[in-house]
Amino acid sequence: AAALGRTYPGGKSAFVSAMNAKARELGMYSSQFAEATGLDPANRASARDLGILVSAASQYGLIRQFSTTPTYDFNLGYRVLKSNNTNALVRNGGWNINLSKTGYINEAGRCVVMHTTVNSRPAVIVLLGEPSTQARNNDATNLLGWLNTSSGQRGSGPSSCRRCSSLRRSSATWSLRSSTNGQQTGTRRMRTATTCTTRHLVF
């Protein structure tokens, strides 16, 4: 990302402007980017917006391929650099994950976004603010398990999700309170969704 920003026509500032313009084009109205790498706490995005981004990114085959390769060896000529996918659910191969991105900075905690297929249906999972990698993996596994057993049927919910204790549900409209700053981000109509106060989102 840093290399893309540095070599973009007009440089880093033009790249960031293009990022923000694309976010608005996609409908990511609660997002604001300050730089390309994602390591600056000035970057902001709600769980809803990240779900939109994942859905858009899943349309690109190279992104799907690169983000879900369990391991890869980079041949540098003088040595081989081994790289492992940072998402254990991708490495373990137990789920049909089409796209994955993990992230961490102190302000955001352990995060992951995934585009998956469960029971022949697409699903996007967004987890923000997890206290540890293991907690993130556990909650992602529990949510996928819930989707697998219930298919997101009305009236069901991920009771096994470690911190989901305040679910709010209606038949069509949800109030999405999942965001990087804990503020309400508005409403969105979704066919199947669940959200809780711990910044988890599935749809």
Radius of gyration: 17 Å
DSSP helix fraction:
25-40%
Tally the helices.
6
Tell me how many strands there are.
9
Low-confidence stretches: 158-198
The proportion of residues in beta strands is: 15-25%
Give the structural class: alpha+beta
* Order of secondary-structure elements: HHHHEEHEEEHEEEE
CA(first)-CA(last) distance: 27 Å
With strands numbered from the N-terminus, the spatial order across the biggest sheet is 3-4-5-9-8
pLDDT averaged over residues: 81
The backbone outline, from C-alpha atoms, is globular
In terms of quaternary structure, the protein is single chain
Specify the biggest β-sheet.
5 strands, antiparallel
Describe the structure.
The structure is a single chain. By secondary structure, this protein is an alpha+beta fold. It is built from 6 helices and 9 strands; from the N terminus they run ααααββαβββαββββ. It has helices at residues 2-7, 11-26, 47-57, 61-67, 88-92, 133-150, and strands spanning 71-75, 80-84, 97-105, 109-118, 121-130, 173-175, 187-189, 194-195, 200-202. The strands form 3 sheets. The chain has a 5-stranded antiparallel beta sheet, sandwiched between helices. A hairpin with a 3-residue loop joins β3 (97-105) and β4 (109-118). 34% of the residues are buried. Mean pLDDT is 81; it is low at 158-198.
